[in-house]
Design goal:
Blueprint: H1 18-28, H2 31-38, H3 45-55, E1 57-59, E2 74-76, E3 79-81, E4 85-87, H4 93-96, H5 100-111, E5 116-117, H6 125-131, E6 136-139, H7 145-158, E7 162-166, H8 176-180, H9 191-198, H10 201-215, H11 248-257, E8 261-267, H12 270-278, E9 283-286, H13 300-311, E10 316-319, H14 325-333, E11 338-341, H15 343-375, E12 388-390, H16 397-403, H17 413-417, H18 420-427
Parallel strand pairs: 4-11, 5-6, 6-7, 7-8, 8-9, 9-10, 10-11
Antiparallel strand pairs: 1-12, 2-3
This protein binds ligand FNR.
Amino acid sequence: MLDTESQTKGPSKRMLALKDFEAAAKRHLPRSIFGYVSGGVEDNQSLRENRSAFAEHHLLPRVLVDVSQRSQAVTLFGRKYDTPFGIAPMGLSALSAYRGDIVLASAARAANVPMILSGSSLIPLEDVIAAAPGTWFQAYLPGDAKRIDALLDRVDAAGFETLVLTVDIPVYGNRENNIRNGFSTPLRPGLRLAWDGLTHPRWLLGTFLRTLMQHGMPHFENSFAERGAPVLSANVLRDFSNRDHLNWRHFDQIRSRWKGTLIIKGVLSVADALTARERGADGVIVSNHGGRQLDGVLSPLRVLPEIVEALGRFPVMMDSGIRRGTDIVKALSLGARFVFVGRPFAYAAAVGGQGGVLHGIRLLREEVDRDMALLGVRSCEELSRDLLRPTASPSDGEYSASVLPAAMKPPTPADSMRPRGLANSATA
Ligand code: FNR
């Protein structure tokens, strides 16, 4: 169990909600790095959509239920976790926080929640799993049989049991914000970057220079079996070759080689989710990459119900836009088995290290606990669509109302004449 009281020191005391970490990280991090973490793609339509989709569901509690024995623990792939949420994979975490990947993985392990190590991370995966056994690994694989096998063998030899294959990045999204903020991978040295670092001395000394002095120049360690490009270089290019070749035949190859749990992340269509199950995936993460890939793509929350309906008891997880306990109970009520949270934990690691991440986990865990009690439910299994009523959010206007599936449209006057039970099943 998480001993959180002892962690609530210093800046964490002022962090009352996940969003507070974002404001603190904005001050702490160089503009280029904060922009990389916080940014979406092109016009940020999907980034906004990820939040507004949650606002379109309202909660409908039950009362006079004895909720004194409630628990949010869930069993996933044979393991019991203390919360229904985990930490999503995020590249370059060791650039925004000192030893970021280890900080995130160790906090997650201490809190008994899963953390997914990104394939675009800067600390060798062997070091991360040694510090935090039970961490999952996320791979960005090229469509190249030899390189796939070599990386899988390395991940397996290191002791990872769960592999997450991210499939929504055949090419990199058009992240104009990175160019506007002077961010690239590798970072290009220059006056602008130097000024960005110098004007954020706590980050410069406590994260960047400390990393350089104690561990040398960070490299992309886990994109392939062999070490990749350095994170700072005037001329080296990162190798993204053949990512756009990756297809279901490669997935079959991965499935036959990877004996552990295999999850596909970045699915949004029912057809792809069904194919994933047919071809032997153990679960899917419905995700739009936090609004960082194709702009205008819809929120995972909107397609979650139809994917869950088509896949039955198959583990369907989701991420993108989750910031509150109420978001988590909404996603679980719509059928998600588990959810992942990205950016807020990157901010928590940047401003508060491992204690900050533990504090963030505790805030979210307490919110879920309180929300469950206020909803009248004792376990995650009791969260169902009966506890939700869809309404179009005023800020989204006609757009959201017109794209809602029939079952999720706001009730019409005729609906309100129906008996409550029937209204419930119309939203199911
Ligand atoms: C990501 N994401 C991501 N996904 C992935 O599969 N591999 C990766 O390396 C990364 N890298 C990455 C870096 C940063 C800075 C962010 C913010 C996100 C996407 C991530 O796993 C997840 O899908 C989203 O972050 C979820 O959305 P929220 O919670 O950030 O809104």
